[in-house]
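Assemble and predict.
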Amino acid sequence: MSPWVGAAVPRKEDTRLTTGRGTYLDDIARPGLLHAAMLRSPHAHARVVAIDTAQAERLSGVFSVLTGAEAAATSQPIRPLIPTPAPLRDWCLAVDRVRFAGEPVAAVAAVDRATAEDALELIRVTYEPLPAVVDPEAAMRPGAPLLYPELGTNVLWHDVLSYGDVDGAFARAHGILRERFAIQRYASTPLETFGCIAEHDAGTGTYTVWTNDQRPGLTLAILAESLGVAQSQLRLICPDIGGAFGNKRRPAYLLICALLARQTRRPVKWIEDRIENLTALMHACNGVMDVELAYDGDGTVLALRVRDIADEGKNLVTPAQHNLIKLGNIANGYRIGAIRYEPGSVLTNKCPSGANRGIGKPFMCFAIERAMALLARRLGLDPAELRLRNYVRPAEMPYTTPTGSQYDSGDYPATLRRALERAGYPGWRAEQARARREGRLLGIGIATSVEPAGTNLASYELVTGHRSASGSAEAAMVRVEPDGRVRAALGDPASGQGYETVVAQIVADELGLTPDQVHVERGFDSLSTPWLYLSGNYSNKFSVTDVGAVVGAARAVRDKALRIAAHRLEVAAEDLELAAGEVRVRGVPGRSLTLRDVARTAYADVLGLPPGEPPGLEARHAYSNPLAAPVDAQRRVRSQLVFSNAAHCCLVEVDRRTGQVRILKYLVVHDCGRELNPAIVEGMVHGSTVHGIGAALLEEFRYDERGQLLTSTFMDYLKPTALDVPDIDVDHLESPSPFTPLGAKGVGEGGAIPGPAAVANAVEDALADYGVVIRSLPITPERVWRWLQEAK
Amino acid sequence: MTIPIRLTVNGAAVAQNVEARRTLADLLREDLGLTGTHVGCEHGVCGACTVLVDGRTARSCLLFAAQLEGAHVTTIEGLTPAEALSPLQSAFSRCHALQCGFCTPGMIVTAHELLAERPAPSRQEIREAIAGNLCMCTGYVNIVRAIEQAAHTTGDGARGEVAR
């Protein structure tokens, strides 16, 4: 039935992308195109007293200069991407006050980028610097400088969410493990930076915006609101997207370019440069977490208390998201009966935080998996054994955690056991012992994780007290063209996930074709792509919603094709099957119509249709995953919907002279349910695991005490290169989800979630003789060297 | 200030007046429409803009176009056969060595230089060769495999094609 789903089909995208024939945003040219550049604040916190643009406007080649005051006069405030807990307003450019170094205060449109940047140097801004606050705990204290004085605090969200008998469990416990962990700011830094081209048609009053924004449904709504136009007057187009990982969502820039386009009557392009990307687009929150595990004598974890401070930066983009989303994996894969979570989302004078591969869940997993490693050591248990004692058992699936997450399927103990077997765990331990005798520091790290997929926006009711959006959904279209060829489109624009291939595999199975015979539209065009407010490339949602939309549309087309063929062949539709491009009467060789014949009837020979059947052979289908539900009376919610899981094992060596950590072996066993295209799945696992390794060893947005970013280029913000990471050995189990149409689950974030913990656990194991406890990242050579010196 | 230059790009003679501050990447992408060369960082770290200049890899974001008088420049377009794919390109597809594809042209240009010099590189040599090209999607695992496979492909079109 499904020859294509499940096969490692080579990607349809690859021919254009390997030959340089892809079309990324910056490859698009428009007649009369102008180029924009942004003037950005050099201060982390300051009042904007005056802006003088006269000289810049006089520069030859400059068409327009836009200031915050003008933007505020000609557009509406820009709404956050998710419901915000505080009634704060923000415009696309800073007005009156700047709140982080790098915040845009003015924009120039000119004949080329260089001229626009020349003009920036001619703009005179008078700032009155204000004290900056860069540490989230300092920002929470009374008397701290306030980013929004009208709010009266820097704390955007604080709550205590309690599930089950937490106090009772702590009172009964054999012991309590208390630790404080921290995470740094880092980001996925897609290789293609963010940007847009905006065009205004003065005749029709419509705007066309090309962008690599990964969530076009919501972005279109926000942009229309801020421009003050109907959504019907705005067209949004996404071409090939050069990676996104959550970072590429910033409607403010689209608005700036739309305002410039309206003013100049010319199309305006803005492409973020790398410094702008690292300084001002989006970082994962840094933060601190106090974790307390109450445990029994045998290592059973009874209850968990977590106090979690997320440093949002100047975040009116996705406020409180990094806290809230941790409810999805706070229990990780363990049967923890009672949980108390105290989130604090805090504003500071730093780059806005936002979605980044896993959003908050890597830190949650880091803290839990570090705590489990420390607990194993305290109890004298092997870290694998401690986990096996605490896992949710396969027979308990679907299992609901205290916070309301439903683990839909999976065998967590088997996943870890498979990893240990594949690694040859006793062999690694022997190798470690041998190396120790030679004076070399080898360490073994284990971390296991759940990987949530699909978001349920109803969960934000916990933050805001009301529901403004909810559920998880996507839309798709399948059309048999009049010539019998098939075209499909999806409201989720891929940013590297190979949807043109996977959607073609799914449609091919449903319509009895080969993937080659199914053309899948690249990207997104709001005029032709079916889409919803919730449409987009985010929250690991392809398997949870997109597949349902594609399957639904394809089945509607298939059913119609069968009805038409049944009428023409004078048989019952139930006796027909679709295969090899034909509708055939089962068991009667030669009695068939080609799909092309059926399409001809549907479009051209409409009198040949069954009575009452409308012409055409196309269907649009919008699919909402049925697992999404509102917050319940106990404040439990399925903030995310289906759960993959993984076990990571790594073997590292620490060079005691230099502090350098080298990963000798890295192994992943994961389970994302049914694998729609195993090659693509494996590639996702590799990439997200390396993202986790980067966070563990290299990457950090480091600020000084005045709020200046010290790591604003790839010379000092270090990404993993081919020499920094090992070959990654991947194996998998397949526990199909009962709650997705084809049994698939999320895969894009999986490696990024346990990766940092696996590496940290390994380094700590290597340094066990020195009594080092790793409480923060990244584990740079300098820090390791210091630990070793301090231990001497 | 504009400067007249003459150079060869993918085998074709190019005569162009360029502004002194325009980079080779600007010239290729904007003046010649060769958008297969991508710009990822503009400070010479990420390698997305890698092209061959007189047969050697170079960062087109770090070279001024005006420096290229008389040079032979080869871009991903110049390494792509008129029909089908080069052995490296098909190995990248076969091994699923790309996801978003933004790094891929620069990666293939770099791999092309490696295979021209070392037809059978070790895995470590491959990793060293591509260490100046960042990929944010693949974790490099399948890129290394693809280059290894392309090296094993008989009659590798990568060899002998380098414009000297």
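Chain B is about 30% helix and 15% strand.
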